Amino acid sequence: MTAEPTIPATPTMAESPTAATPPAAVSPPAAATPPAAPTPPAAATPPAAASRGPREKSGIPRNPGRRDLGMKATLLFPDRDIVERFYVPLIYTACRTCYSEEEPDEIFRKAVAGETDPSRQQKLIQRVIESGHGSTIEHVVFSFGIAGVSRTLSHQLVRHRAGVAFDQQSQRYVKFKDAATMTPSTIEDAGPELKERFDAQIDDSLDLYGDLLAAGIPGEDARFIFPNATRTNLVMTANLRALIHMSGLRLCTMAQWEIRRLFQLVRHEIFAVSPFLGSFLAPKCVPLGYCDEFGNRDEHCPIRPHKDNVMAAWSEKARATRGAARAAGREAPAP
User: Fold this and answer.
1) Cα(236)–Cα(176) distance, integer angstroms
2) What is the pLDDT of residue 242?
3) Of the ranges 56-60, 68-72, 207-211, which is most confident?
4) Among candidate residues 293, 307, 247, the one with its CA nearest the CA of residue 60
5) Which of 150, 226, 303, 311 has the most CB atoms around it within 10 Å of its CB?
């Protein structure tokens, strides 16, 4: 990339050759005035800083982790000891059984006892996962306690079904005397008038909920007044294959900011017990090598090139190869 040219500073009157200074008028001698103290030179601006314009705004949505959203994702089971002792050996056993005459219990025993090199276990697991053989990682599960997320998030989360189980705080049986809510950062940062109107709307809804309960309205009916901003708690259990799939979608910068933050926390919890297994939780563009999000066709998120541009580059290269082959008088290979 060529550096932006530096624009020279405008010359001062003293430096300009066209700005002649008229001679001073002759005055009678006066009392000698002590010379003024010399003015220290101004600090020089580094050339790079002078030529650098305002920083370009990134097209990637702001990282939701930069703001405390008041949510938690805690790994309830398993702990690090169980993962290190049994999870990798169990996945390895599932992988190795597919390619070995040895019985699974013996493969597992050797893996747990360390008779099979742990690095060899990880190498096979990585190769099998990257090949798309996902059933081998359905044998291990992770359970999370999720607290303080909004109903907006939970409606998205429970759409994931295969390999996942959820139990959520009931709005029918729980009486929310101190219901908490989530405020989006865009509203937090909006003008004070809009923020005040949002807060007033939320407060009115929660006040009415309390009045309905006090009037004898059942909780299962009073809850109809709750906004989507209402916070909730869940327990989520998912096998590793499901977690990788969910993370691929929800860690993407195109995902909604709140659920993206949740899966940043989930990934952090998995990393704490197994950096090896946690490394597979990544935006889907990382293993794919390209972005397939329709909304990113302009590549405002530059993590990976969009598949349309990848295919266009491939087609252009194929045309150039065929043209060069024809010019050389030989048949080009079929694409």
Assistant:
1) 22
2) 98
3) 207-211
4) 293
5) 150
Selected catalytic residue, list 96, 250, 261, 267: 250
Instruction: Decide if pLDDT at 61 tops 50.
Output: yes
What 1-8 contacts at long range (C-beta under 8 Å, 24+ apart), as own/partner pairs, is 3/51, 4/51, 4/52, 4/53, 5/51, 6/47, 6/50, 6/51, 7/51
Cα separation of 166 and 235, whole Å? 6
Distances, alpha carbon 182 to alpha carbons 209, 258, 267, in Å: 17, 10, 22
Q: Is 134 exposed, middle or buried (0-12, 13-18, 19+ CB in 10 A)?
A: middle
Structure tokens at 168: 């959520």
Joined together, the tokens standing for residue 10 give 């405008």
CB 236 within 8 A of CB 269: no
Cβ atoms within 10 A of the Cβ of 77, count? Answer: 12
The yes-or-no answer on residue 172 being catalytic is no
Top-level CATH class of 66-146+232-284?
alpha beta
